[in-house]
Please model this.
Amino acid sequence: MKREVLPQLNAEDKDLMEHILAAGKIKHKFAVRLQTVLHRANGKGTNEIAEFLGIHPMTVSLYVRRYTTGGIDALIRDKTRKPGKAPISEEKKQEICRIACQEKPPDETHWSTRKLGKRVGIGHDAVKRYSGGDYCFKPGSERGRGGGPVIGAGLRRTALTLSPGKSTAARLGFTPLMKETAP
Model:
């Protein structure tokens, strides 16, 4: 039979946990963690605590170990996790706008976000997000023949220069086509 470990809870920590719980301004998941350690310190069994709080018995042991190694701070803060996907590089963003505005897809008149994403190696949502917003989409129409947004229509390429503080399309020197009016 496994020996259940009791947390070494001093009076100061116990008072602080009870005060935090009594204040009521704490997220539910943190309150459950504090209650778990308090009940375990009072000698209640792991299964009894798990059933009472509606958590798994292994979670009770996890919270007790967390308190033992990190104190109250470990219970009222989530562990840090590694970040998600790395953001798309500035070079990749420039490549999206360059391809959309300077090249035509084979046997098509305009790039769809899916085809451009496949060509560049990123998802179509990322293409839409980094393609320069309204500058790279066909004026007056958000949908092409294939049903997806059309990129590269209605653009005029000027200089390909970068300057901080401007939008992606503006930094890349793309301006929307405008009908010129006669004076």
